[in-house]
Amino acid sequence: MSQKSSPASHTSLDWIDDVIYVIDADSRLTYANTCALNHWRKQLHEVVGHPLEDLVPHVTTKEIHNAFTHALYTQQRTQFDTIGVRHRKWINVTLHPHRGGLIVHIRPLLRNSEVPGPEAFDALTGCLTRAAFQTALNVLDKPQVLAIVDLNGLKSVNTLRGHSGGDTHIRTIARAVQEALPENSLMCRWGGDEFVILTPGTDPDALYVLLEAAETNLPGPARNVTAYAVGLTVWDTTTPFERAFSLTDEQLQLRKEHLREQGGTSTDESLVTFSQELEALRDPDDLIQHALNRLLDLLDFDQAVYAPWEGDDNYASHQATRAGGPPIQPPLGVRVPITKSGLVQRVQRTLTTAWNTDYPNEITSIPVILQSGVKSVIVTPVFSQGKIIATLVLRAMNRWQTITPHMRKVVELTALRLEHALELRRAVGEIRSTLEAGMLTLGLVLEARDSDTQGHTTRANGLSQQLGERLGLNADALDHLRQGAYLHDLGKLSIPDDILRKPGRLTPQEWVIMQGHVVKGYELATRIPGLPQGVLDVIRSHHERWDGTGYPDALSGTAIPLGARIFAVCDVYDALISARPYKEAWTHEEAVAEITRQSGRHFDPEVVQAFLHLAQHQPE
Fold this sequence. Notes:
The protein is an alpha+beta fold. It is built from 22 helices and 16 strands.
């Protein structure tokens, strides 16, 4: 069109079945043809003089707004293609310069028209492609009813009928749904067996009735299994599409779970695999951390937290986060009253899992967590002896994550596995405490028989634990060292009193009998069920010497078990600083000097060095 022509003077434009209107330099309408007025459902006098945004709000989206602004500013002819809301197909928009304003010409494009970007329609079903649908989101008026349609059992259809039969199944359902939709609806093939629908309005129930009616005559994948499941919600002007999609998907998953329960379908393989992984772990700390890391990947969350309960408070003791994500709030170790912990309080009240796909709208949401960007949350209790001792918390950050029944099952399975591990640790702890108390009692009995060594076992044991930690022994090795310290003189039960309590030096024959106490002690200890080898090593070898001149086996160097080498230093040190009928107590300095002189002879030099570090802090 020429700039000199005036559309308002050419009523022939009213006969054109395309949308045509004119705006001035201020984007106010000066003319609209009959086709445009019919689309807007307005009279000409109702639009002339009004800003374009009042009539077609969608033109203010970024891409289209930029195109209009560029054409107005440069007065250059501009055109672009986009998805037409009403026609559910591609349209062409051409902007012609006109007296400082623009003539806007909108016409539909044929399916085979060349348009930029991805192909707009799915070849199998005729629905919009996902890319074309996402383009259309930018130009849609709201509110819209959003529906997700998920085909049931497509895998079984493919297995039974082959993929060509599966394609026929998909195409049949897609066409039936398209025919049932109201005018101005958009339908997209979102994935292989999943479709997304948008239809103007605010009544999900009305759309559900239409989809349910369409499904009635459609073939299902098996007897008594419906063709598809549906989730619906309203997408309004205040809601990001991602949030509306997650809420819709949550409704869909609830319906699918209901169908699975009705059909008695088996648990998902991923759930079984994860259960087997957890079963292989025994240590609760390892189990907690591994579980948190795997839950992030398996369930696609961004933060995972293990929060123990102590009294009326809870706090995060373990965490896992996606790389580059925001820090967890509240931070590790910060105590928060359970009454102020949002969903945690609900867990306390109901003793069951609490969750919210749309956490920003949670009535009990916590401000500091909202500010960190949390959008979706699962909180699951961990029990011990019937009481909640902790919670597992999963969070999606800056995005809405659909929380499905399957997800909740996985988290609850993890919590149950933790419960078993913690119960095992508690039971083992009680057994160890009982065993240790028995060993301590036996050690005290031995000391009572040999009255000159009262307190020796407790002191030597305490020092050996410090020395073992200094040398980097793990928890199990320290346990073995402690138990061995309690029982190191067990064999003295077989030594006659006249030898054991003799105030003077022993004769060579008596010394041979006394030396035999380590073998006797070892033999007695082997009859105690469940004693680890590390305990037996301390009992048998604590009188061996680094240079090989000790007893009973004349072991030397590192052939002597480490626990025995550690206890030997502590045993001798405490004996030196203790008074005996045949000697006075040595001073701390004298004892340390003697231990130093015996380095490389009686004692392991490395153990002596660690001992000297500790000796600086021993009381004189």
